[in-house]
UniProtKB/TrEMBL annotation:
Keyword Oxidoreductase set for record: yes
Record's protein name: Putative oxidoreductase
Residue ranges occupied by any Flavin reductase like domain in the UniProt entry: 12-156
Pfam family, one: Flavin_Reduct
GO molecular function: FMN binding; riboflavin reductase (NADPH) activity
Keyword Plastid: no
PANTHER family tied to this protein: FLAVIN REDUCTASE, FLAVIN-DEPENDENT MONOOXYGENASE, REDUCTASE SUBUNIT HSAB
UniProt entry keywords in alphabetical sequence: Oxidoreductase
Family: Belongs to the non-flavoprotein flavin reductase family.
Domain of life: Bacteria
């Protein structure tokens, strides 16, 4: 039986996810970021997280070179940032959207949480590359609600 790609994507969409903007510095020291919903924990000791990057993404070359990155879990009121940094060619961070973290990484202002990571490993994963990062620093604001995505649209926790 051959799997229908559209149906597979729709069924995957039934799993509610948070929305993150993964940020890094380009080799020219320009801050950039892209929206993803493929973030997960891997290990507590050492502290490892993962996300996946589509191999034909316009950000793939920059993340292939980056040795560190930050995972920024967006807050419920940051839907505009999610939409902006999900657009092809719209990955240069606007100056008022970030601060610089302890490890020199762009950290999205107002995010629920941020994980500053060094690259632990990269693995092939079909049409994606799986990036595993060792978490070096975390920041979190427990007063904020996360931005949630399910069945093709943004949702709110209640």
């Amino acid at each position: 039986m051959e799997l229908d790609g559209r149906e597979f994507r729709n069924v995957l969409g039934t799993f509610a996810t948070g929305i993150c903007v993964i940020t890094a510095m380009s080799e020219n020291d320009e801050p950039f970021g892209m929206t993803v919903n493929s973030f997960a924990s891997v290990s507590l000791d050492p502290a490892l997280v993962l996300w996946s990057l589509q191999n034909d993404s316009d950000c793939w070359p920059a993340f292939e070179l980056a040795e560190k990155y930050a995972v920024n879990v967006l807050a419920a009121d940051q839907q505009d940032l999610s939409a902006l940094y999900a657009q092809k060619g719209k990955h240069t961070l606007q100056p008022d959207h970030y601060t610089v973290g302890e490890y020199g990484l762009p950290i999205i202002a107002g995010a629920v949480s941020s994980f500053e990571c060094s690259v632990w490993a990269r693995y092939p994963g079909g049409d994606h590359t799986i990036l595993i990062g060792e978490v070096k620093r975390i920041d979190s604001d427990s007063s904020k609600q996360p931005l949630v995505f399910n069945a093709g649209q943004y949702r709110e926790l209640r």
